[in-house]
Design a protein that fits this description.
Structural class: mainly alpha
Shape: globular
Number of strands: 2
Strand order of the largest sheet: 1-2
Largest sheet: 2 strands, antiparallel
Subcellular location: Cytoplasm
Number of helices: 5
Strand content: 5-15%
Family: Belongs to the DsrC/TusE family.
Order of helices and strands: EEHHHHH
Radius of gyration: 14 Å
Keywords: Cytoplasm
Pfam family, one: DsrC
Main location: cytoplasm
């Protein structure tokens, strides 16, 4: 479900406060920090490992280069290349890292705005 743009709140982090929408996605992706990612991971019941951080770094870099969030296809392709996996195994690895879904967990942790038209997968 898409959140309402006018319903936001501020959350405190060790490196300052950030504004999030009602689902917890950053309103301004430039406010992203590792502290924000750790907070989201904690809220989502995840314990980020080095591979989580590599995926998040890829997503942040993609946003910087293209001005839009990378959809799951690009993250799967990234994992396939990084880990030498085929597409099927890379997809399983992505959902092993983010079991509640790419949009719900990976996009939120990476500081993306909530995607408008993507599925919640």
């Amino acid at each position: 479900m898409r959140t309402r743009a006018d319903v936001t709140q501020w959350i405190k982090l060790p490196d300052g406060s950030v504004e999030v929408d009602e689902a917890g996605y950053l309103v301004d992706p430039s406010q992203w920090s590792a502290d924000f990612a750790r907070k989201v991971a904690q809220d989502e019941g995840l314990s980020p490992n080095p591979l989580h951080w590599r995926v998040l770094a890829f997503m942040r870099s993609y946003l910087d280069q293209h001005g839009i969030a990378a959809d799951a296809r690009f993250a799967i392709r990234f994992l396939a290349v990084e880990l030498g996996l085929d597409k099927h195994d890379a997809k399983h690895k992505l959902f092993e890292l983010f079991p509640e879904g790419y949009v719900k967990q990976a996009c939120k942790m990476a500081g993306m705005r909530q995607p408008r038209a993507w599925s919640t997968g």
